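hey so i finally got around to running the thing on that chain from the lab meeting. sorry it took forever, my laptop kept dying and i had to restart like 3 times. anyway pasting the input first so we r on the same page abt which one it is
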Amino acid sequence: MKTAIVIFMLLAAPIGCASDPNKKLREAKVEEAEAARQQREEAIDKTKDQKVEGIEKRTDLSKDQAEALPEGSEQRAKAQADVTAERQIFEVQSQAKLQKMNARLEEARRKLQVAGPRVPTAIHDRLNIATKQSASVASDLGHLPQVTTERWTDERKRIEGRLAELESLVDEVASQADSNSP
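ok and heres what got predicted. didnt touch it at all, straight out
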């Protein structure tokens, strides 16, 4: 009896070792996906900060140049510079937020690929929906510069709402990808 157990353990040991490298490979791929997302998010933040700083410098320059104008024109030019800066900063921040969500979606996609066929189809469907919504929001952001002043506040609220809705969906997909990854 003891001999049978020893033989079984000797035969089973290579099987256990053979699956271990595959698990390590899957874990390494998951870690790689996480690191790629983190690097991408850091680059997005850096680019966003540089763009916002550039906008603020241009705004300050515009305001300085406005001081040479007559009083009424000066106030109008300064107010226009502030409005333009606010719109541009909102656009830059929204694009950065969307890019970060896209990075998370890409990470989720990679994790689901590593997990393989054991992932329920519904999770892939949610990922595809999030990807399509992301593209739609990106299109909306692309049209922001053409939005009239009268429609700006409503359009901003609409985009903020769409970003919040997309973020919720991305959180759901990322959570499901995490729970299904090795």
